[in-house]
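are you around this afternoon, could really use another pair of eyes. what follows is a protein written twice so to speak, once as letters and once as structure tokens for the fold. i want to understand how the tokens follow from the sequence so walk me through it. anything you notice is useful, everything is just below.
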Amino acid sequence: MQQAVFVEKRQPGWQRLEELLRMESKKGVRNLEPETVAELGQLYRWVTSDLAFATGRGYDPSLRAYLNRLTARAHAVVYGGVHKGAAQRVAEFYRSTFPAEVRASRTPILICAGLFALSAAAAYYLIITQPLNAWVLLPPSMIQPIHEGLHKSNFEPAVRGLGSPALAAIIMQNNIRLAFLAFGGGLTLGVLTIYLLLFNGLMLGGTAALYQSAGFGRDFWATIAPHGIIELTAVQIAAGAGLLLAAGVLRPGRLRRADALRQNARRAGVLILGVASMLVVAGTIEGGFTPQAFSENSRIIFGLGTALAMLVYFLFAGRATAAPAP
């Protein structure tokens, strides 16, 4: 068989294998559909045969080099996962699987972030323009005379009484509970998830307005910033995972509802596992860094640094590199 005819007949399979390898690089083998994994294995066997055929016929060295690279990449995926240890799988999850799934699930996550932001902005506006609205929007326990900043009133006594490690453990427990409630709310067709987002948005915006009215607005945001950007992002991702569960029931597409729910549950599981780790980091910062007597500017800069780090991570981590052309 002439090389040109060989390439014309076999190239579609090579291109499909490259496409599956890019998909695996973004999501990981564990997050691919069983049919996709089976197809990847079949195409690997085909390209191995093609490499042997091209070598036996003495085809162009560049073609053989391309097929050799493609075979090596596919072999690493097909057989490499069997030999990966726990540490490698964990590293792959944070390096590729989790950020790739956040990007793939950006629509429900952004919907949740939008609802939360609108709720917080509405509460802030209504209370800053008419303080009596606080009695309508906030629980009475939150409406107290404010004579000092959030940092001094909430963190310094806690650190003196508990110590940072104990405080961090309490904060982690509360935040993980909230995130898992937002996630589990997907099983209520998203009703509980949306309620939690709106309620917590009201609490944040309303509390910010109270401290701003008392003259401690900058201290409030400086106290929230170091841990809060990670924490609030994690909650939105968890809520987005909850909406994925709801979508499996409400919008199954061409799949059966049970299959759609199972498929979305796998994706949501990736998100919630990553969220738990984010909340551990946020709780550690909130228990160890936030209570310390750093300046407002230092705390704000630290918070902006966490925002930039997360932005870079979620935008670029786990993206597949371009495959070589034949």
About this structure: The chain has a mean pLDDT of 82. Residues 101-316 form one domain. The two ends are 18 Å apart (CA to CA). The longest helix spans residues 217-250.
